[in-house]
Amino acid sequence: MGWRMRRCLLLILLVGAAVSAAEVPPKAAIASAHPLATAAGMKILRQGGNAFDAAVAVAAALAVVEPAGSGLGGGGFFLLHRAASGRAVMLDAREKAPLAAGRDMYLDGAGKVIARASIDGPLAAGIPGLPAALAYLAENHGRLPLSRTLAPAIRLAREGFEVGPGYLRQVARRLEVLRRYPQTAAIFLQNGDKPRPGFRLVQKDLAKVLEAIAAEGKAGFYRGWVAERLLDSVREGGGIWQARDLKRYRVVERRPVEGDFRGIHIVSAAPPSSGGVVLLETLNILSPYAMHTLAPVTLKHLVVEAWRRAYRDRALYLGDPDFVHIPLARLLSPDYAAGLRAAVRLDKALPSDYLNPAPEKAEGADTTHFSILDREGNRVAATLSVNYLFGSGFVAGGTGVLLNDEMDDFSIKPGTPNIYGLVGGEANAIAPGKRMLSSMTPTFLETRDRVAIVGTPGGSRIISMVTLAVLDFAAGFPPSLWVKWPRYHHQYLPDEIQFEPGALSAAERRTLQAMGHRLHPLASRYGNMQAILWDKKKGTVEAASDPRGEGASSVE
Ligand code: GLY
Fold first, then answer.
1. Which of 150, 328, 394, 495 is the one with CA 20 to 30 A from 447?
2. What are the sequence ranges of the domains in the chain?
3. Looking at the whole model, is its pTM more than 0.90?
4. Whose CA is closest to atom 3 on ligand 1?
5. 394, 67 in Cβ contact below 8 A?
6. Distance (Å) from CA 370 to ligand 1 centroid
7. Closest Cα to residue 40, out of 24, 23, 56?
8. For a pocket test of ligand 1, which of 438, 460, 526 has the largest count of ligand atoms closer than 8 A to its C-beta?
9. Fold of 254-364+440-555
């Protein structure tokens, strides 16, 4: 080989090495809502698992150590990016309405909503999706068996762990319903009352259910002794689950929604979550404004005006895509956003009731999120839920499985507010086997040089929190600030800006009120964002857990 050829070859090799070095993260990272769940995921990565194996371990561990937020009795959405193909998919593990469910199942003979019927107890529970998702991830995306990836969660359930102050606060908020069911109280309370600091939460029955899934995969939950106990217990408690509900449950791989905002490619949750659609519609409305030249208060006003319009469309058009037609191309089109933007004024709020009326609804605030990046560049953003704190509060006897109350995410009755003071639309009416609308917004952000993985719990506020994280990412701030900065929110109805302490200065509050905004200061902070940033140019990986929660991030 001549020297010219050799030099050419060397050049090709060097360029190739530089490209692949730039495309592979120097470190792996996990951010989750609990240190024990982050540790479980890291352990699996160290054992040679990929991000999808780690996702199984983290999700299962969260089901044990953060039972108020998610669990085997719940569901959620896993956004997956496979480095080898460069493709993203959304694993839809959302709960489904039981086949015996009906549109008016939570109304009395006079058509009035039966108080709390869609919130407390087994009638409030949809058919869980998380166990099917764990098995699907292991079979289709992971490389380790469930016996390995579920081992940390099984040990945590069997041996127990000391709960933190967050658990004690959450129990206090749901004490009444946790006391109502003896099988629930026996696990989550201490002598029938609020546990004292230092309480060790041991879940031996849940460990056995996890072992059944580890041994038999999906069938370990949806068939056999676990299914029998779930069905017996739900029926005894007044629920309507049947064996065919469990047998027929399937997760679905869906195309995420995608869009671009100022050079950032955004990949996010598709329906039946409203998250990605509302996020992209908001960003499309904001896109042409020269944000860095605007006064901060004007920017906040514009963000609120964009949310007002995007959240309204959520209520009007969104539901389970297997049941209702969603005009996705229109909702995500920049031209449609331009039409919405045309009525936005820089100096004045538009009252929500000047827009065509649309019923609207938000979901429970007590979900969980985790983000994972592995050394191959695979990514997972997963937001999981049992809906309200501790879901329905009902543990199916002999399983330790706390059932969700995700049925409350359907429109129980168009125009009637749910537990969060919001009402729902026709596209999200209850139907047998239908998935209820969600706000969960697991999201990837990507520019030529940077990749971010982000999400949070927080009900309808999830989408506004992720919007603010996108704006912070666009402005070049690090994830430690996206997860920390005070937040503000608007969701069309109620027509008010809700804001955390410190989110709006006194001068900003005066200006916004003069523009016609109604302000609703919140006494407490909300959200529990878990974020990862891989800067390809700098060759760094950062991860951050929201200081509002007890989460932990790890980079190694
Ligand atoms: N239940 C929370 C959500 O789906 O948004």
1. 328
2. 36-76+89-250+391-407, 254-364+440-555
3. yes
4. 438
5. no
6. 15
7. 56
8. 438
9. Glutamine Phosphoribosylpyrophosphate, subunit 1, domain 1 (3.60.20)
